[in-house]
Amino acid sequence: MSGFSKLIIFVLVFLLGISQARLWFSDGSVSEVQALSDKLMQQQAENSRLKNRNLQLQIEVESLRKAPQALEELVRSRLGYIMEEETFVQFIPKGSAFKNEKTE
Questions:
Q1: Which of 43, 75, 87, 100 could tie 81 with a disulfide, CB 3.0–4.6 Å?
Q2: pTM of whole model > 0.85?
Q3: Residue range 47-65: average pLDDT?
């Protein structure tokens, strides 16, 4: 092999090395693309979960707008609402943390 062909082979190998280094280690490298792809999949899953939750909330809001009984039930269950002339009774299971002061 002549000196010129050795030089050409050296230049080609050098250019191949540079292109491979950019492919594996620089911005937009294979590992960075894979990490961004994983992050995108996680974000899409989170978006899907939130979209489903928003749909559930939208259905609940529509139900509350259309049915006054649904609103009353929601207020009773979440906020402990008691109407006038109603009596609130709470049952505490045996062995719970609450104790009757009269029995001690």
A1: 75
A2: no
A3: 94
Q: By the 8 A CB rule, do 88 and 82 touch?
A: yes
C-alpha pair distances (Å), 43 with each of 6, 37, 53? 51, 10, 15
Tokens 């009353």, residue?
72
* Residues sharing a CB contact under 8 Å with residue 58, sequence separation 6 or more, in sequence order: none
Rounded CA separation 88/90 (Å): 7
- Cα–Cα distance, 56 to 58 (Å, whole number): 5
Residues shown for the chain: 104
What range does the domain containing 20 cover? 3-79
How many Cβ atoms sit within 10 Å of the Cβ of residue 71? Answer: 13
